[in-house]
Amino acid sequence: MAERTGSGTENRMILIGAGPMGLAAAKAARDDGVVTIVGAVDLDPTSRDAAGRDLGVDTYGSVDDIAPGSADVALLAFSSRLAPVESAVMRLVGDVGCHVVTTCEEMAFPDPETRRRLEAACRRAARSVMVTGANPGFAMDRIPLALAGGCRNVREIRVTRRVDTSTRRRPLVAKTGYGLSVSEFQTAVQAGAIGHVGLEASAELLAEGLGWRTAEVSGFTHPVIDDHGSVLGQHQLLTLSDAAGRYIELDLTMAWNLEDPIDRIEIVGDVGLVAEIRGGYPGDQGTTA
């Protein structure tokens, strides 16, 4: 983030994406005394107007409407997909002159060409981009990597995360397919509308942190259904392996009223470690942190 000025004033921050997660994170930064919120951007007029009233700031329909030099920091929380977020980041870094913090899952581990473009833009503008969040960013990558640091010759990492979505924000519930039929769920998976976007990024971050070179990534996304055949959510499994046969398994279930929510991490190596967060790590509150 930008440094505080000599006068002691706070960083001026603009929010890009005025949904529940973006608003909560922006308010947390403001309430912690880290920033002063000076504006909000959202494509949806209803969300935009609500954010303006809630935050007491001017609002805009596009990042193209933000004047150069009008903010020091931008918080991007409007998409999990790389393409629209990269476009906004380039505008904010290069033209507005902002440092950028984003919760975009696909930007947590971008492809090499995208990484080179972002790094070049940041160097030219002397600005930085930070990708953060609960998952990717903490629950299924940073915590397992920290635990693996206490073991030699790690051979396997298995991470299980079970989330009761009845306690989570509505946009996340919708992304799990809740209320769909099984056929509708399968169609949405094929279209990329359902499934946790950041699972592969978490696995790649873990592998890079361990110094492993990825050889193969495989996985599936299946529906969790009730006794009547309605979809309650999703079960997603991803496995990453290297040429030496070592592997990372990320097992994520997110469903309505899911029993026994938990985060469980198992490290297999010369020293075996098992860690659990009973009740599960609260992703919404964790992202704002």
Secondary-structure map:
Blueprint: E1 11-16, H1 20-31, E2 35-41, H2 45-55, E3 58-60, E4 73-76, H3 82-96, E5 99-102, H4 112-125, E6 129-131, H5 142-148, E7 156-164, H6 170-175, H7 182-190, H8 199-210, E8 214-225, E9 231-242, E10 247-255, E11 262-268, E12 273-278, H9 283-288
Parallel strand pairs: 1-2, 1-4, 2-3, 4-5, 5-6, 7-10
Antiparallel strand pairs: 7-11, 8-9, 9-10, 11-12
Polypeptide structure, described:
- The chain is built from nine helices and twelve strands.
- With 289 residues, it is an alpha/beta fold.
- It has two domains: 11-131, 3-Layer(aba) Sandwich (Rossmann fold); 142-288, Dihydrodipicolinate Reductase, domain 2 (2-Layer Sandwich), CATH 3.30.360.
- Strand 1 (11-16), helix 1 and strand 2 (35-41) form a beta-alpha-beta unit.
- Helix 5 (142-148) runs parallel beside helix 8 (199-210).
- The radius of gyration is 20 Å and the shape is globular.
- Mean pLDDT is 93; it is low at 1-9.
CATH class of the largest domain: Alpha Beta
Basic shape: globular
Sheet with the most strands?
A: 6 strands, parallel
Q: What is the typical, i.e. mean, pLDDT?
A: 93
The poorly predicted ranges are 1-9
Helix % is: 25-40%
Total of helices? 9
Sequence of secondary-structure elements: EHEHEEHEHEHEHHHEEEEEH
- Strand-residue proportion: 25-35%
Task: Measure the end-to-end span.
Answer: 15 Å
Any idea of the CATH topology of the largest domain? Answer: Dihydrodipicolinate Reductase, domain 2
List the domain count as a whole number. Answer: 2
Rg (C-alpha, Å): 20 Å
The appropriate CATH architecture of the largest domain is 2-Layer Sandwich
Give the beta-strand count.
Answer: 12
Category by helix and strand content: alpha/beta
Strands in their spatial order, largest beta sheet: 3-2-1-4-5-6
